[in-house]
Amino acid sequence: MTFKDTLEETYAALSANRVRSSLTILGIVIGISSVIALVSVGQGASASISSSVAALGSNLLEVMPGATRNIGAGVSAGRGTAKTLTQGDADAILSSVSNVQAVSDEVSGSYQIVANANNTRVTVDGVNETYPSIRNVQIDQGSFITDQQSVSLNKVAVLGPTVVTDLFGTDTTQPDGLPTGVVGQTIRINNIDFTIVGITVAKGGSGFGSQDNMIYIPVQTAERFLAGNDYLSTIDVQANSSSAMTQVQNDITTLLLTRHNITDPTLADFSVLNQADILASASSIGTTLTYLLGAIAGISLLVGGIGIMNMMLTTVTERTREIGLRKAIGARRGDISTQFLVEAVALTVIGGIIGIVLGVSISLAVSWSGLITTSISWEAIVLAFGVSAAIGIAFGWYPARRAASLNPIEALRFE
Amino acid sequence: MIEVKNITKTYGNGDMAFQALKGVSFTIEDGEFVAIMGPSGSGKSTMMHILGCLDTPTSGTYKLDNKDVSKMDDEELAEIRKDKIGFVFQSFNLLPRTTVLRNVMLPLMYAGVPEDERAARAKEALLSAGMVETHFMHKSNELSGGQIQRVAIARALVNDPSLILADEPTGNLDTKTGEIVLGTFQKLNKDFGSTIVLITHEPDIAEHAQRIIVLRDGVIVSDTKNHKQKMAAIHKEAQTS
């Protein structure tokens, strides 16, 4: 029996029961296409998470104050609430830690903003001149805050694009959608007038900490007029290179422990966040997401495989007399088991090919709809196809063996 | 040539054991047309399974063309069936929804005959079995009962076997169609010298054979060749059963 004979027999057998064959193939199609589509959505999502983290700035370390703690009661008000970081700390980091590119002080708070008869509540960040280079902030209109404005305690503000549209509306005729003439106008932050000197370029991202929904003002202006004290809420430190991140992080910790007279590092009143760590945890979230989606899709692939086994077992029972006849006229065990195995594998391979086409189309359609930019990976396609072929062999093997081991006499008598 | 010596077949074991054949011996020469007759329970189906290499005897020897096949395993039996035996069953002879030609080509496929030879040999066998060429491409479910049996005969002889074994080949046919099918067997036997063993319980059918072996309760009660004796045996069998 040649391979061509086997294929012809397989075609005859599968086309003899088209509806059942198609439904079985459909099970595999759904399994394979959902593996490909969901894994590509997962990978697209994790790529988008990683790129938004990367957009926060490169080689970035954030020094944040620790938590305030009532002595005795031990109640913590949460990280970042303590007032322990000072301008002196920031200057010391810049002057005595090696491999530091730039340092930016931040004093942030959330305030009610009024302008143009509208009002909104956003985060107001007191920053230095170095902030845009550290945090990847770009200016769309006007200019960013200068250190001179900070020293002079100028009441000037740079607005994020979301704040501009919230307060001044949109202008669809402009390429960025922002109305013109906003720079130069006045807004009231916490009932103090500030002059708008610039608007930043939209960075995307939404929800908490969106960098488009922010107002930047000079850091010393923020300390004097809004916070009312000299403490910093964050010190942003940019290292020279990603390889220097760990050294810079350790040196900052040592320096600040000394400056704050703390001997036990576990009692540190500040913490140093490494952006690489954030990126690593964000990408691990993405990986977990991909695994989760893949596992869900894998279950449907498994169900499809069981469908194949079900069909093949039914077929073996239905065709018992045929198997008996074939054996009587000279078919060996191998001929019978090969025939049934090839039928099962043919079902999965046909289903696999249709499934790959459908899965790729679904993920392209998702990308095209703009919901999420999916990334189709060859690994997912190869894996899904390999799994489907393996399912065909694994779930076809048992029915094939059962068919081959039928006693021809009993098979012929079977009613 | 078929040599059966002292064959027994026991099903089950212990108290449940049932002996279907209790020591059967006979020899069938090449070119003979033999009917094995007997009522149900006589062991004729068991005999047919053993002769057809679908089963092996519990004891005794069965030599087909001087080859002892009585101790062979499943795979070896399949090889023997493929090369030396052609079957015609009472029913379910043909693959459903498959053309006449393809059905007849099936044994050639399993025997590994090159593809380009198969159709020619199948056509030859179909013509020998009395089928007309216009029916070759018909599906098996479009045929009459008599046509199905003749296609089955063609399939049985396509491999040029040492033995054509027919198990109640006319059991599902009316008398007239049955006569035609039996005529086909007789013609093959006479024209091509095919060795044919026919298993039946009907005396009328057995009459067409040259020799009749009558089985009862697992033993041979008569083995007759001569026409007069043959008729007597059939007559006796008809009365007692």
Describe the protein's architecture and organization.
The complex is a heterodimer of chains A (415) and B (241). Chain A has 415 residues and is of the alpha+beta class. Helix content of chain A is 55%, strand content 17%. Chain A contains 13 helices and ten strands. Chain A has helices at residues 3-16, 18-55, 87-96, 131-135, 147-151, 161-168, 219-227, 245-259, 275-318, 320-328, 333-369, 378-404, 408-413; strands at 60-65, 100-115, 118-127, 139-142, 156-159, 186-189, 192-200, 214-218, 234-239, 270-274. Chain A has a six-stranded mixed β-barrel. In chain A, strand 6 and strand 7 form a beta hairpin. Chain A is elongated, with a radius of gyration of 33 Å. The model of chain A has no long low-confidence stretch (mean pLDDT 84). Chain B has 241 residues and is an alpha/beta fold. Helices cover 39% and strands 25% of the residues of chain B. Chain B contains eight helices and ten strands. In chain B, strands 6-7-8-3-9-10 form a six-stranded mixed β-sheet, with helices on both faces. In chain B, strand 9 and strand 10 (219-224) form a beta hairpin. In chain B, helix 3 packs across helix 4 and helix 4 (115-128) packs across helix 5. The longest helix of chain B is centred in the C-terminal third of the chain and has 18 residues, at 175-192. The mean pLDDT of chain B is 88. At the A-B interface, helix 1, helix 10 and helix 13 of A face helix 2 and helix 3 of B.
- The chain-level mean pLDDT of chain A equals 84
- Rg of chain B, nearest Å: 18 Å
Silhouette of chain B: globular
User: How can the largest sheet of chain A be summarized?
Assistant: 6 strands, mixed, barrel
Structural class of chain A: alpha+beta
Which H/E pattern describes the elements of chain A?
HHEHEEHEHEHEEEHEHEHHHHH
Percent range for helical residues of chain A? 40-55%
